[in-house]
């Protein structure tokens, strides 16, 4: 019988006919839209980021230093903007709307950059082939159009980057063991989708931009931004949308100021202001901890008549904070040691992506007689190794561990970060050995291009991908899981801030080594036009020492903060098994 056909109204029919149960929002049903949105967004943004240097050099005739400054300032601004995006998401807009508005800003920015490729009037005229040293420079208004597009992309990145992972994490109930397991899988699948998007951007789109048409090459990511927004809106009815609860940045300032005002009072002599969380019962209440006890002074009630109103709420939030605000700030302070170790990982991560490309330019890139391997494709080795490991870990390692032990086993966060740092050291040692081999072959041959194949450089890029799969995914997961739910946007912003600081620190190290080695060695280790005249292998070995120092720092100090998290996870697993 057709259930959709009209039936006569009867008591029996009305008694047995019930509307179908409404599906609960969140879970993998919502996450598939979020990952789809993220994949198209990353494909779009990385299509520009990976080739912006070539575009500025060839189409705007900008010199090397100008190009480096533009790219560095734009990249740094995009990463710093994540802090502003996190603040806006937590105080007024919420993660859903911040993501949506950030995506729209990115679409407008990519559209503006595409216009510069379509209309020649928006760019300076091409260089004269007979006099390439005197190229027409862009007018101020032409640069203004370009920088407007890049500025909109930075604004969009500020809204997207701190919220996409946090919004995905919102879709799972982390108070249950199933939800925590699903969340860890989400991190891996999110990173896998991110990598697949990069693979497409660095192969197909970059090839189109360089060899076919900049107009088509920029139109493709513009359309991808449009698809990203469309997919995101299609899933709007499936999302769990947490309301903004105020910025953690404001709470940080309040906790510090309140604790300073009460620095002369003893914590043990007063009671704490610790109101109930009836309005947010879906979120676990933070347990009062003994760490950073000085901050507890921000929550002590010294004089109830002066500090509390008739409803029992603080009269001045800059003098009395709740215990939950204090514990939230403690969570933020406790990730700083891991944040520092993450900067050390990203310093190593940046090397193959910069000097590794220069090595490829001075290596034999011929495949057959008619094709040369593009240097930008060297990144693919790391992305492929990352993707293969995540698939093996999720589909093989975990299942085998469950068969052997009878329960689900995953590598602890401490194990993953430690392995990642060790891999980073190996990566730099391998890079140094390969560079010495490449350089010596070029000097023996008396040529700018070494006869050594580019394939010898692939292992160092593959090791970079494994380091990312182990350490960087774990660090991102730690930032997100270590924070209360309402602070996850801040966790995302801190992760991208790590990228920014590591980039600036990498530049500082390069300049420092160039200056010092130029004074005490026959020639500077880095900085010359010809790598064969430098000693890049010495530079790689120096970065390996930096990685070794990072390993010692993590093992001897920072790992204790991860160990406490791993022990908490294990305790919850044991309690759940006892309950079962």
TrEMBL record:
Residue span of region Disordered: 1-25
Annotated signal sequence range: none
Record's subcellular location: Membrane
Membrane-spanning residues: 65-87, 99-119, 139-160, 189-208, 214-235, 329-349, 376-396, 417-434, 454-479, 491-513, 538-562
InterPro entries tied to this protein: MFS_trans_sf, POT_fam
UniProt-recorded Gene Ontology molecular function terms: transmembrane transporter activity
Bias (Low complexity) ranges: 1-13
Keywords linked to the UniProt accession: Membrane, Transmembrane, Transmembrane helix
Family according to the record: Belongs to the major facilitator superfamily. Proton-dependent oligopeptide transporter (POT/PTR) (TC 2.A.17) family.
Protein name, entry field: Protein NRT1/ PTR FAMILY 2.8
Organism of this sequence: Cucurbita moschata
């Amino acid at each position: 019988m057709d259930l959709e056909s009209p039936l006569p109204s009867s008591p029996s029919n009305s008694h047995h006919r019930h509307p179908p149960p409404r599906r609960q929002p969140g879970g993998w049903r919502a996450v598939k839209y979020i990952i789809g949105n993220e994949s198209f967004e990353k494909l779009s943004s990385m299509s520009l980021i990976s080739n912006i240097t070539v575009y500025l050099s060839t189409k705007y005739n900008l010199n090397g230093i100008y190009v480096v400054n533009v790219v560095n300032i734009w990249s740094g601004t995009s990463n710093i903007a994540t802090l502003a995006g996190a603040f806006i998401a937590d105080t007024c807009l919420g993660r859903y709307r911040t993501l949506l508005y950030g995506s729209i800003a990115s679409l407008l920015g990519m559209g503006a950059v595409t216009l510069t490729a379509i209309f020649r009037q928006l760019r300076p005229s091409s260089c004269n082939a007979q006099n390439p040293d005197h190229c027409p420079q862009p007018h101020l208004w032409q640069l203004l159009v370009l920088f407007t597009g890049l500025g909109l992309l930075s604004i969009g990145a500020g809204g997207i980057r701190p919220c996409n992972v946090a919004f995905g994490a919102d879709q799972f109930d982390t108070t249950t063991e199933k939800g925590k397991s699903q969340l860890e899988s989400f991190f891996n699948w999110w990173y896998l989708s991110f990598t697949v998007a990069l693979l497409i951007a660095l192969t197909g789109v970059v090839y189109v931009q360089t060899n076919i048409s900049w107009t088509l090459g920029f139109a493709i990511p513009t359309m991808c931004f449009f698809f990203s927004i469309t997919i995101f809106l299609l899933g709007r009815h499936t999302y769990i949308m947490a309301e903004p609860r105020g910025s953690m940045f404001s709470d940080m300032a309040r906790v510090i100021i309140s604790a300073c005002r009460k620095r002369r009072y003893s914590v043990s002599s007063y009671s704490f202001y610790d109101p109930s969380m009836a309005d947010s019962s879906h979120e676990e209440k933070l347990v009062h901890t003994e760490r950073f006890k000085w901050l507890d002074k921000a929550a002590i009630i010294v004089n109830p008549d002066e500090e509390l109103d008739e409803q029992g709420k603080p009269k001045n939030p800059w003098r009395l904070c709740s215990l939950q605000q204090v514990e939230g700030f403690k969570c933020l302070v406790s990730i700083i040691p891991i944040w520092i170790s993450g900067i050390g990982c990203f310093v190593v991560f940046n090397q193959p992506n910069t000097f590794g490309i220069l090595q490829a330019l001075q290596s034999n890139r011929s495949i057959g007689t008619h094709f040369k391997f593009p240097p930008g494709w060297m990144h693919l080795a790391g992305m492929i190794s990352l993707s293969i490991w995540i698939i093996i870990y999720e589909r093989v390692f975990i299942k085998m561990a469950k068969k052997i032990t009878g329960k689900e086993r995953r590598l602890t966060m401490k194990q993953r970060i430690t392995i990642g740092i060790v891999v980073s050291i190996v990566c730099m040692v391998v890079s140094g050995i390969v560079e010495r081999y490449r350089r010596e072959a070029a000097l023996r041959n008396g040529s700018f291009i070494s006869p050594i194949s580019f394939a010898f450089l692939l292992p160092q890029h593959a090791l970079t991908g494994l380091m990312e799969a182990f350490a960087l995914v774990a660090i991102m997961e730690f930032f997100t899981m270590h924070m209360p739910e309402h602070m996850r946007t801040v966790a995302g912003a801190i992760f991208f801030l790590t990228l920014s600081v590591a980039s600036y620190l990498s530049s500082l190290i390069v300049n420092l080594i160039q200056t010092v080695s130029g004074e005490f060695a026959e020639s500077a280790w880095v900085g010359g036009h010809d790598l064969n005249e430098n000693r890049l292998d010495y530079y790689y070995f120096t970065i390996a020492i930096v990685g070794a120092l990072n390993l010692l720092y993590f093992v001897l100090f920072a790992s204790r903060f991860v160990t406490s998290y791993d022990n908490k996870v294990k305790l919850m697993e044991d309690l759940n098994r006892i309950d079962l």
